[in-house]
Design brief:
The protein has about 625 residues and is of the alpha+beta class. Helices cover about 25% and strands about 20% of the residues. Strands 11, 12, 13, 14, 16, 20, 21 and 24 form an 8-stranded mixed β-sheet that branches. Strand 12, helix 7 and strand 13 form a beta-alpha-beta unit.
Length: about 625
Amino acid sequence: MRSFLLPVLSFTLGLAARAIADPTLSPWQLHEQRSNIPRGWTRARKLDSSVSIPLRFALTQSNIENIEALLYEVSYPGSSNYGNHWSASQIAATFAPSTESIETVRSWLIENGVEPHRIKLSPTKGWLEVASTVEEAEHLLLAKYHVYDHETNAKHIACENYRLPEHVIPHIDFVTPTIHFDAKIEKRDRFSKVPIGQPSQGSIPKTTGQVENIFDQIEDCDKQITPICLRVLYGLWYEPVSGNNNSYGIVEYTPQTYLQSDLDMFANRFSTGLEGVSPTLVSIDGGSIPTSASSFDYNGESDLDLEYGMTLVTGKQNVTLYQVGDWVEGASFGTFLDALDGTYCTYDGGDDPSQDPVYPDTASGGYAGRNCGTVKPANVISTSYGYNEADLSVAYATRQCNEYAKLGLMGVTFLFSSGDSGVAGNMGYCLDAEGIESVDGTIFTPSFPATCPYVTAVGATQVSPGQSVWQPENACDQVIYSGGGFSNYFSMPDYQAGAVKEYLAANPISYPKDIYNSTGMSRAYPDLSANGANYVVAVDGNFSLVYGTSAASPVVGAILTMVNDARIARGKSPIGFINPIIYSPSFVPSFKDVTNGTNPGCGTLGFNASKGWDPVTGLGTPFFPSLLAKWLFV
């Protein structure tokens, strides 16, 4: 994939090419480095050289440079292979690391004093693992390891940079533990001390509090959004007929969980045949649904996603809930991907123990097993969580982004909310000149995985006060702002190049070039949008007004699931990775253009919504009847 670091902002993590002297086999080169410490962390002390450390070398995957072309082949309209999705075995066979990569890295380790019996190859050949010490790791990587303390009292082992021999570099994606920092929930008391919002704080929806009077008429959709408003806005009048042949998945990360009493309360008011109905629970790494810990912070996200997702696809379409992580270790996107594809697991190719929770979890109350390649992915998967792109290393984000491409090859549509802080990141953080996230920063902070070119990023719109559902929506500016902008990590994919070029030509950006990725060559997001303001949601026994791209993503997921239903009923394949087709000239008119509003952040008004694609609302909002008609003829 063309998703390596773009040469634009000096603060981003990078792969350098600066050799140092006196090599053993070939010159060492800087492989990864971090130019700053993530917010909340401080370097405490040098790590003792005798401490044991499990070094893991992520081997370069075969054919990964072709993954974009392979994905496009099954995703572009007009392709003779459109919809001919791959099997899991085809994925594994195509992208397994080569024998050359395995032997090159293994030989280098042995020549540098590592006994052969200490080198272990994972079952699917994705990783080489060495039981090592700090002293040996520092010798192998020319690195210095330190202990870092977090403001939450968590501790972490990391180095600022590391090097590899020139002849080894083509065979290794990255090494752990090295520069990567925790992006997971730490072990804490079950309820009282677990940070809210997983995988990253600040990505859950917002609320303005409880409402006593519920308006369920389309004349009041500027005040409160209910299912009838969304059906009118997006033309979603459809009864599914494919039953168990179709699937829709919604992902929640512990400690976010739903309450069945809330789902019943919502169904009693707004749904037919859903009272008493639960989503099908797929527990991943100990995910469970407790009946306590009731508060908006714990239940708001999951209640929102499921109440609207289930209602819009009706009781005739089952909804799968992927509940990820136990109450001790928590979860990350990596642990979810583990369950979908065993080749991504720590022992099989992608999990990073310095970033992702480790299972089995040996702590009291932890999950003793591990879900690795045991879960069949749904046709459409909606996720209303996200990191700040700057929280992660380039190699980590790239490896994960490639995994979404693999799953796209298998016919899975991945939707991610684009963030609620406009051009700023979660919690409103922006970057300063040193690349450090803070509320005083002025440099725009993109969201991940929304910036991955192999997922569909969903922004937020609103029915503005005084307007009706029959008028065009505007970019959301009530309580939240639609996340959008330009990636600092990923190159622009071909499918959106024309749309972004037109936006930049028609909307010259006057901001200083160093506060956003101004190259015109980076992945732009979101791809599309849906309403994200004034949702009536049953939370903890009361109705509340809720806001966020967290609301928009499951709505789009429901619409696309109904498209799949109709295709499957006609013997066609699921739509899979949709971005190439929705940006095509024949599909663009199936979206209602949003031309008014901005997405403020970082002390600016952000970008402008305008005619055509824009970095606030993407292509606009989906109109189901038009999309359905076009997808049925592809």
